[in-house]
Design brief:
The complex is a heterodimer of chains A (83) and B (199). With 83 residues, chain A is an alpha+beta fold. Chain A has one domain: Glutaredoxin. Chain A contains 3 helices and 4 strands. Chain A is globular. Chain A starts with 5 loop residues before the first strand and ends with a helix. By secondary structure, chain B is α+β, with helices and mostly antiparallel strands. Chain B folds into 2 domains: 133 residues, Glutaredoxin (3-Layer(aba) Sandwich), CATH 3.40.30; 46 residues, no CATH class. Chain B has 9 helices and 4 strands; from the N terminus they run H-H-H-H-E-H-E-H-E-E-H-H-H. Chain B has a 4-stranded mixed sheet with strand order 2-1-3-4, with helices on one face. Chain B starts with a helix and ends in a 5-residue tail after the last helix. The chains are: A alpha+beta (83), B alpha+beta (199). Chains A and B meet through strand 2 of A and helix 8 of B.
Amino acid sequence: MTSAHRVKITYCAECGYEPQTLDLAKTLMIEFGTRLSSIELIPWEGGTFEVSVDGQLIHSMKREGGFGDSAVIKDAVRSRLTG
Amino acid sequence: MTIDRARFDKGLTYDAYKAQMTRNRERFDENEKRVDLSKEDVAAFRALPRPVKVVVLAEDWCGDVIANLPVLGRLAKESGKLDVRIFLRDQNDDIMQRYLNKGQFKSIPVLVFFDEDFRELGHWIERPASVTEIRAKRRKDIFAAHPEFGSPDAPVDALPEEVRVRLQGELAKMRDDTTKFANAEVVRELREIATRVAA
């Protein structure tokens, strides 16, 4: 049975993080296609850049620093899809 | 890297900066209108013995620029004593590297005050510490008053959309409620630097 996998990217809309957000969303769209049920972009504030899959936080600028390596984020998403 | 007259003249005037903005112009103009300068503050800037040059690093996507640069703009306009030139942060990294926040962060706006001979009087970065402090406290109070918002440190994407929208509304209201205090603090700190100019 196919299960729904949701990715959410929360980004600081006051910090100019839109390019990094769109780059990551595009990377995930191309890599996973219909294996993801949705990719939600959430405009936020306070220097936020967080990525979660099915409610599990896989990258946080506050926790890991930076926007994250897209290869590492892809691997984390893949492991959720196959796990 | 030093700022001299030639480099200063390459910066954008306040009006030219506004004209090239591609986003947040409406918010910027609204903030400019909302700045409420006291007669005493304006008089203090008008009484500067010599004009002061102000180099600014800014970008139009930054919330602190949108909030605080209009305060400088109004002070310049109403005092006639501040000569402002604005440089885009991402095109002027040599200036940025000299004024990194805590030696490592490219926080903006950066305002650097010079006398007419380009001797630095002082610089100002991002926002007053008192504003950061009061907003952090108010933010904590909001979460304490609304258990449905969860922990202030938890990812907001876990909140139901309707709750998240309400939280965003509460945070926006809090920023609005503290704007008058924030603007007064910016004026107080800028005045302290500008009045270092010698007669």
